[in-house]
Design a protein that fits this description.
Its main location: cytoplasm. The mean pLDDT is 96. The chain is built from 19 helices and 12 strands. Bound molecules: glutamic acid.
Length: 469
Amino acid sequence: MTVRVRFAPSPTGMFHVGGARSALQNWIYAKQQGGVFVLRIEDTDAARNKPEWTEGILSALDWIGIERGSYEGPYFQSSYAGEHRAAAQRLFDAGRAYYCDCTREDVQARTGSQYQGYDGFCRDRGLEPGPGRALRFRTPDQGETVVVDLIRGEPTFENKLIEDFVIARGDGSPVFLLANVVDDMTMGITHVIRAEEHLPNTPKQQLLWDALGVKPPVWAHVPVVVNEKRQKLSKRRDKVALEAYRDEGYLAGAMRNYLMLLGWAPSGDREIVPWPVIEEEFRLEEVNPSPAFFDEKKLRAFNGEYIRALPVEEFIATCQPWLTGTGTIAPPPWQPEEFDAAAFAAVAPLAQTRIAVLSEIVPNVDFLFLADPLIDEAAWAKAMKEGAADLLDAAIAAFDALESWDAESLKSTLEAVGAERGLKLGKAQAPVRVAVTGRTVGLPLFESLEVLGRERALTRLRAARIRLV
Ligand code: GLU
């Protein structure tokens, strides 16, 4: 039997990192089993779906390495409406489902309590289909439903506690529970690997598989992803969109490595592991069922490591979208004609060791490409204390007199200027750095001055000096 797995996102928003994690797990499982990965877009919630969300899912999957053309699909749930309705009809014809015209209020009035599930009132009323009548599945009164779950063992549910749930609404449209099962059947899915949030649906869905006469799939409910407060990651509160991480400058390699560690770890004491090793070592059965903490700080640290591991030419190329502002990435503060690729290449190795996400390249190098540096006023106030004017005067004069404008000469010159004033190099650097780059932190100062060039550096130092008058 060929293993067939599917990833079945609903295109109702940005692509959630938890979804990306499930997609990768499905992807690897299929690969390990010599199976097939199917992508199904569950687009039946017409009010909330948008085509751009579907496009977003496809491109985000591409980005993390699940590339268009390398999987089966995408199929669209909305194209299978006929199959969904036919399955509902079959269940009705076989007596496994019945029509019901009760409202929630009716049930509440009868049971005299909060709505706690349907009371079975219409079970034997023999209602025919009609407007406003929902179709309910007749759950067995006895026995148990045992879910075979590769991660959670065999969660067991007592059938009498499962209410007669709705499978088609009063307007005849099938609900998610049924559509999802019918699609999995139609697509020959053998393993359903999905988020834990769906576990409460699973006994109901397994009953539907049984009632429709098809052997249910093997399930694997992967752990819910939580924030540092142990709350489920939510798109209203947390940064959850894979696209947001991409646009901020996380590398796909770092991201997918990190996502795979949510609930699983490779052998040895390693966390940063080449993708082929993850593909080989990952075991779905080893995934820890407890909630997985999405630790953005750790992801950042991972990303920094991945950035540092790039060959410098690749680092330069990878920074390009942030330097020119392409696609969904915010444009930099300079004009395209101000950008100087050679100057960037000269400082790139210095920047590569200092940034954790690629967007951070912009504030590190903007001083090279802007006519005037963007002055951070707080940094200015901090650096331009008493003595700054005198130090700048001396530095300007000494730099101006330099024969060779190179980092080493600049450094020894400023060292001497500082020493004459009883200042250590660090202190002497601060006013110069703010004058030239606008900031108190950044790339090594003397290399920055060298790349900026004598004329521009001196112009900025003189402008700062005038501001201090
Ligand atoms: N469309 C469902 C969701 O996005 C997926 C359900 C499933 O994987 O079975 O949550």
